[in-house]
Design a protein that fits this description.
The complex is a heterodimer of chains A (about 375) and B (about 375). Helices cover about 75% and strands about 0% of the residues of chain A. Chain A is an all-alpha fold. Chain A is globular. Chain B is an alpha/beta fold. Chain B folds into 3 domains: about 170 residues, 3-Layer(aba) Sandwich (Rossmann fold); about 50 residues, no CATH class; about 120 residues, Orthogonal Bundle (TerB-like), CATH 1.10.3680.10. In chain B, the strands form 2 sheets. A 6-stranded mixed β-sheet of chain B has the order 6-7-8-3-9-10, sandwiched between helices. Chain B has a 4-stranded antiparallel β-sheet with strand order 2-1-4-5, with helices on one face. The chains are: A mainly alpha (about 375), B alpha/beta (about 375). Chains A and B meet through helix 9, helix 10, helix 11 and helix 17 of A and helix 2, helix 3 and helix 4 of B.
Chain lengths: ~375, ~375
């Protein structure tokens, strides 16, 4: 019996890997050839948003902590990469916006961003550490539920106001424009560079997806679910949930930082607007639509909502907001487990009956599928 | 012998309300201690303090000689105290096996949980536990599909997986059928062989099943009394606490009643005639007027269920008059239905214990015989 399960699992894994490779080929090879430049750029932005959705799924879907402040980490990653691009200028010169405010010398915290490797590390580590620190302060005091959500949103507002007001440090409300800057000597806004950004986004999305799968598949992932279901029980079993929550929140923040950097270079600008409240809430909606604690649902949800937004706002600009509201209502009332959850628990079952993959049970399913009954039946047939 | 748990002058107050009040308690390793007490006696707070969920306002808790003050819950759990909650608390979205596996984990640090694969020893422990709690067939089913009794068993299994020295079990029989209750009782008794256990319970039937040692009664946040099950059940203080009022008869009268009850139970069969004799005779004897007689009859019924050895009861009789009364009543009780051998044996024992002159015994017997003829 165990062998049968193992074989089945192996087969499933092969099928899954096949599907992922197929999707990667479609997205990374075929679509760049087929789609016009601006469409591809749009798709790249949506894919980078689905990376941050993966991070939210980790902290909300698995660990049960609803963060409404992921805009902070998203923007921090974006700013890190944008600062590096802004510094692609001859030695001794300042990015042009500094002269507007009469700044003569580059602020100290800009210096490390001359180096590309440090920038890459920074755009992952800084959001991760900020998230971990915020998480530590909150979780150590056993703040959870709504209070956690409120605190993350308050933190978001603090960061938003701070970035908005600091013209002399990071150009305040105007943000940093990246399209006109160069990276490795090439114009960041050009089609060829954008295509590379797009392909990198696809690769990173797959990498982050598998990283999250690894995190959530073992004991660690099960412990996250356990914390979500009954934190007190976890404590009385000898685990300290604080450490786990801080680590996951930190990882989630780091993932948001990566997403933010990719989104920034494909948008062409980063401004404090990335830290507005509605944007962070929208991230949560993507995960809810796709299905919590499913990972793949986070990606699907982001793609669906964002694509719908693009097409609707192109053809019927005034309808989009109503549509978004309606979508959220529908998900909350009709599909509480999101699209993927609905597919797994309901649609797939029906479909396998229709395709004849699974026998239709005529008696009571609870009786027919009871493991004890099954085991008995197997033992009888063995004899 | 070193105590596994010692509690000294423990007081816990919430906004001035003392949930525990100057409580003293100690327990030897290997003991199975049952704690009973009416609602609001502080039983759950008692467990909360031991597990670190609530900090003591005054006094201290020593586990294996170590003060538990200010130690967080997870560290206390790692020191070897496992707790089962009143309602089964298992991880509903994980399978039975995963539930056990999580608790079985030897190193519960963040990074070793993340990077180290489960050891084969641990998976063997899980396999053995699945067998002990009888959930092998459902090992891969999510815990939310289990019945209430199965969840109770799973949670006890999770406790054992933690391999604690001291198990705290809060009302394990709550909401179970009789058969499941017995299963859980048997499981606890077998666990008691290798663990120290504190069990909180309401269900007296269940307490009788598992209490093979001492029982502690909590009332209004402190220990009311401690002793064997039989001692507890006869303690007028306990009866008062549980029935809400003190027995209206004197301890001497209670003693007579107890002997009468023992006589009635002699053949293991308490017949309605015997009950009738006891209730009518005693209520007539103890009561002041007819109205009181009726209410007394109702009250006395509460005390009929307990069978205590005569050797304990008879020496408490104070004077000749009481002894004679006992003799009269006892003979009438066994005479009220057909006498049998066991009853005669017990009666002989009673006579020996009473140590009354032969002529008086004879006089009493003929008196009663005459009534029945």
């Amino acid at each position: 019996m165990n062998n049968k399960i193992k074989k089945q699992k192996k087969r499933q894994k092969i099928i899954e890997t096949g599907i992922v490779i197929g999707l990667v080929i479609i997205f990374a090879v075929i679509l760049p050839i087929v789609l016009p430049g601006f469409r591809l750029r749009l798709l790249g932005r949506i894919l980078s948003l689905s990376i941050v959705a993966l991070g939210i799924d980790l902290i909300w879907g698995y660990t049960g902590l609803l963060s409404l402040g992921h805009g902070i980490f998203f923007a921090l990653g974006g700013y890190a990469l944008a600062m590096h691009l802004k510094l692609q200028i001859p030695e001794g010169q300042l990015p042009e916006f500094f002269t507007l405010y009469g700044v003569k010398e580059l602020p100290g915290f800009w210096h490390p961003f001359y180096s590309f490797p440090i920038t890459i590390v920074a755009l992952i580590v800084i959001p991760g550490i900020v998230a971990g620190l915020l998480g530590y302060l909150v979780f150590r005091n056993r703040i959870k539920g709504v209070y956690f959500s409120i605190i993350t949103q308050a933190a978001l507002l603090v960061f938003f106001n701070f970035f908005n007001g600091q013209q002399k440090l990071i150009n305040g409300t105007n943000g940093l424009k990246t399209d006109t800057e160069t990276i490795f000597g090439m114009l960041a806004g050009s089609d060829s560079v954008q295509k590379i950004f797009y392909i990198i986004t696809v690769i990173i999305l797959v990498a982050v997806y598998y990283f999250c799968r690894w995190l959530t598949s073992g004991r660690f992932g099960r412990l996250l679910v356990a914390i979500r279901d009954d934190e007190t029980r976890v404590r009385f079993s000898g685990y300290n949930p604080t450490g786990y929550k801080v680590l996951v929140f930190g990882i989630s923040g780091a993932i948001a930082g990566i997403a933010g950097a990719l989104y920034t270079v494909q948008t062409g600008i980063i401004t404090p607007k990335f830290m507005e409240v509605p944007f962070s809430i929208e991230m949560v909606i993507w995960v809810a639509v796709g299905g919590r604690a499913t990972l793949i649902g986070a990606i699907i949800g982001t793609l669906l909502v964002r694509l719908a937004q693009t097409f609707l706002s192109e053809s019927l600009p005034e309808v989009w907001l109503f549509f978004q509201g309606a979508l959220f209502l529908i998900v909350v009332t009709v599909l509480p487990d999101g699209i993927v959850g609905w597919w797994r628990t309901w649609a797939w079952e029906k479909l396998s009956y229709m395709l004849g993959l699974k026998e239709r049970i005529v008696t009571y399913p609870s009786l027919e599928e009871n493991p004890e009954t099954k085991q008995e039946r197997e033992q009888l047939s063995d004899r | 012998m070193k105590k596994i748990l010692e509690i000294e002058n423990l007081t816990v107050s919430f906004d001035g309300f003392k949930a525990l009040n100057n409580l003293n308690f100690s327990m030897n390793p290997g003991e199975l201690r049952v704690i009973i007490g009416p609602n609001g006696a502080g039983k759950t707070t008692f467990l909360d303090v031991i597990t670190g969920k609530v900090q003591p306002t005054k006094g201290r808790v020593l586990f294996k000689g170590k003060n538990l003050k200010k130690i967080p819950e997870y560290k206390i759990a790692r020191m070897g105290i496992g707790r089962k909650f009143q309602t089964p608390r298992v991880y509903l979205n994980l399978t039975v096996r995963e539930n056990l596996d999580l608790v079985c984990n030897h190193n519960k640090n963040v990074f070793s949980t993340l990077f180290k694969p489960p050891k084969s020893v641990e998976s063997r422990t899980v396999g053995g536990l699945l067998e002990t709690i009888g959930l092998e067939a459902k090992a891969n089913a999510p815990a939310e599909l289990l019945s209430h009794g199965e969840k109770q068993r799973l949670e006890i299994g999770m406790l054992v997986a933690q391999s604690p020295d001291l198990l705290l079990v809060d009302e394990p029989a709550a909401g179970l059928t009789d058969e499941e209750t017995e299963n859980v009782g048997a499981l606890l008794l077998s666990l008691a062989e290798s663990h120290s256990i504190i069990a909180i319970e309401h269900d007296m039937e269940f307490v009788r099943q598992i209490a093979n040692n001492k029982v502690t009664v909590l009332h209004q946040g402190s220990v009311l009394c401690e002793g064997t099950m039989d001692e507890i059940q006869n303690d007028p203080k306990v009866i008062e606490v549980y029935l809400g009022k003190a027995p209206s008869i004197t301890p001497e009268q209670m003693n007579i009643l107890r002997i009468a009850v023992s006589m009635a139970w002699a053949d293991g069969n308490f017949t309605p005639e015997q009950m009738n004799v006891i209730l009518s005779r005693l209520s007539r004897e103890f009561a002041i007027d007819t109205e009181h007689q009726y209410s007394l009859q109702q009250e006395l019924q509460n005390y009929l269920a307990k069978n205590i050895p005569l050797e304990e009861l008879v020496p408490k009789l104070k004077n000749f008059g009481e002894k004679e009364r006992v003799l009269k009543l006892s003979y009438e009780i066994i005479r009220s239905n057909k006498m049998n051998r066991q009853e005669i044996e017990v009666y002989q024992k009673l006579l020996k214990l009473l140590d009354l002159p032969d002529d008086i015994v004879e006089q009493v017997e003929t008196e009663i015989e005459a009534k029945y003829k």
